[in-house]
Write a sequence for this structure.
């Protein structure tokens, strides 16, 4: 009944043109009137977009009037939605083949006669709400994702040229930077693949540990043979303070060389576990102080006990009952002092720098590369090389455990 | 043809005792179509059209001098014009039929020299030519079902006759007729067309020699 033509235009809809032709011969006396344009006729059209399964994606009706030549010009998408399928033209899911069905009522009513059904062979809509491309998509020009809309890639993203993020960037996976800058001069800032700039603060590294220990590394340093050569790791002077530890310190002998070797931090991969608590106490200033304070406490306690016993047992013989008071005060003060000492150190944590070379504070080469040196060993320095076996040497030094300890947090 | 003329002459002479007249009539036909298509619909805005007609023939005066029997030929042109508002179409028909006509003229009144008569006739007509204009196209109607067939057209006429001499009289005639198709070339459609015609014409009737007719004395 109609000769419809549809075309695409850059509006939110499909331009639809049709010449309304009554192709039923109109019976008149003699020669019947063949198909004829219908001019100036009010009519109503129904547009239906159907998917491959015959389901209605969108349906609307429009009133219009043919012009003097029987032509109508409409934009599908500007009509009144019937509510079937998508609520509006903008919400049509264009995925998959679509068919445009057109119905007409020449009486401008709702008794639509189907007269046109044709496949939409080209997505007739520039601003897609939902675009699904199953094939390879090539963009030969710029791509803009506007209105603050997000982009999501379920697969890999490869950026061949410079990548710029003007806002925060979050990486929830491992980040690898392999940037051959071509500059090797250590004094040139361009030689460093990772540059942080733009603020008065540099870089923050937050571990998921409330109290990073020496097995929790902030930064590890590796050579190109995948060998660990250093690290910046967590450090806390005391982890679990127990009286037994102090007793151990007081009563146990110094560890043997084998034990020391076993306790030595292995700076090769994998990163060594933290030293045992006992080792920690014996190897740094804090623990030495702790040991002294504890011994003082024991001493004060013993003095108090002795004086108290003497006072009770021999009043008048020794006449030391005043010492009981002084020793009790001393015991109290010593206890307070020990408590504050421990608390102070518990609340002040830091990081330790560990290096394969830095175990020797003097950064000197071993005379015998096979020799095992442990912290606390006295080594001699001869001709720039060290060994514990040197009887005579230019200089004698001590192998340190923690060559550098950063300042504790204020 | 000559033989047919002789036969017709023998017929007239055998049935008319004495009086014979010839007549010729020319006038205008206002015709319109009464049309119904296959679905029973009519053609809106179907307007009449004016055309001419020509009749001629014999009249034989029957006994009593008040009635004549007519036997003659007719050449009638009918037409109509129409348009379709919706489709913006224009239609025009122009058809000419020839045929034979028979009937009676009955003079029923007289006033001075004027004779008043009624004239029931019936004619059998076939299409001679016909055209149909459809917008800017003209079509030949030969072979078209509704037109190219035998029409039976009964008519009734009324008129008055005035003698202009002892042998001749002029008459003014009005007739109304309606055509009926006698054949149907395409039974599959149910289109129905009747042509209604109003004919107004002037005629002359002349006594043939030997007619015992008295236009003035009737």
């Amino acid at each position: 009944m109609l000769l419809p033509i549809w075309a695409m235009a850059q509006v939110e809809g499909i331009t639809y043109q049709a010449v309304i032709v009554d192709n039923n011969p109109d019976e008149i006396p003699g020669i019947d009137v063949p198909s004829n344009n219908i001019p100036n006729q009010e009519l109503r059209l129904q547009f239906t977009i159907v998917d491959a399964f015959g389901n209605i994606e969108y349906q609307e009706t429009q009133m219009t009037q043919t012009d003097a030549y029987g032509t109508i010009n409409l934009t599908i998408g500007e009509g009144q939605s019937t509510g079937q399928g998508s609520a509006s033209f903008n919400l049509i899911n264009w995925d998959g083949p679509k068919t445009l069905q057109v119905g007409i009522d020449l009486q401008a009513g709702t008794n639509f006669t189907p007269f046109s059904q044709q496949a939409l062979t080209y997505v007739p809509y520039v601003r897609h709400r939902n675009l699904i491309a199953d094939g390879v998509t090539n963009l030969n020009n710029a791509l803009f994702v506007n209105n603050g809309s997000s982009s999501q890639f379920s697969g890999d993203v490869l950026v061949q040229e410079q990548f710029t993020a003007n806002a925060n960037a979050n990486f929830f996976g491992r980040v690898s930077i392999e940037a051959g800058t071509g500059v090797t001069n250590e004094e040139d800032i361009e030689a460093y693949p990772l540059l942080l700039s733009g603020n008065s603060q540099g870089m923050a590294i937050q571990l998921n540990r409330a109290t990073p220990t020496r097995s929790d590394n902030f930064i590890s340093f590796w050579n190109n043979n995948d060998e660990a050569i250093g690290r910046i790791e967590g450090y806390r002077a005391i982890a679990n303070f127990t009286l037994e530890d102090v007793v151990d310190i007081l009563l146990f002998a110094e560890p043997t060389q084998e034990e020391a070797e076993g306790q030595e931090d292995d700076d090769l991969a994998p990163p060594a576990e933290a030293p045992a608590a006992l080792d920690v106490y014996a190897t740094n200033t804090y623990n030495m102080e702790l040991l002294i304070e504890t011994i003082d406490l024991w001493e004060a306690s013993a003095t108090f006990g002795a004086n108290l016993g003497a006072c009770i047992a021999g009043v008048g013989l020794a006449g030391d009952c005043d010492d009981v008071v002084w020793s009790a005060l001393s015991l109290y003060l010593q206890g307070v002092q020990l408590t504050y000492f421990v608390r102070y150190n518990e609340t002040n944590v830091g990081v330790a720098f560990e290096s394969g070379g830095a175990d020797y504070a003097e950064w000197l080469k071993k005379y015998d590369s096979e020799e095992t040196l442990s912290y606390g060993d006295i080594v001699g320095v001869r001709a720039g090389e060290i060994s514990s076996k040197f009887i005579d040497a230019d200089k004698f030094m001590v192998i340190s455990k923690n060559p550098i300890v950063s300042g504790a947090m204020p | 043809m000559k033989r047919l003329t002789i036969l017709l002459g023998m017929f007239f002479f055998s049935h008319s005792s004495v009086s014979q007249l010839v007549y010729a009539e020319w006038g205008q036909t206002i015709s319109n179509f009464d049309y119904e298509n296959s679905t029973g619909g009519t053609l809106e805005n179907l307007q009449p059209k004016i055309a001419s007609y020509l009749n001629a023939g014999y009249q034989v005066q029957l006994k009593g001098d008040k009635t004549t029997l007519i036997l003659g030929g007719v050449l009638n042109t009918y037409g109509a014009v129409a348009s379709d508002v919706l489709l913006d179409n224009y239609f025009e028909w122009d058809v000419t039929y020839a045929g034979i006509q028979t009937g009676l003229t009955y003079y029923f009144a007289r006033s001075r020299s004027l004779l008043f008569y009624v004239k029931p006739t019936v004619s059998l007509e076939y299409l001679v030519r016909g055209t149909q204009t459809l917008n800017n196209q003209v079509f030949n109607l030969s072979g078209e079902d509704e037109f190219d067939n035998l029409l039976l057209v009964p008519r009734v006429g009324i008129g008055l006759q005035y003698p202009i001499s002892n042998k001749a009289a002029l008459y003014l005639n009005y007739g109304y007729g309606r055509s009926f198709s006698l054949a149907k070339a395409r039974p599959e459609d149910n289109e129905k067309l009747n042509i209604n015609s109003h004919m107004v014409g002037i005629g002359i009737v002349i006594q043939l020699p030997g007619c015992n007719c008295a236009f003035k004395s009737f």
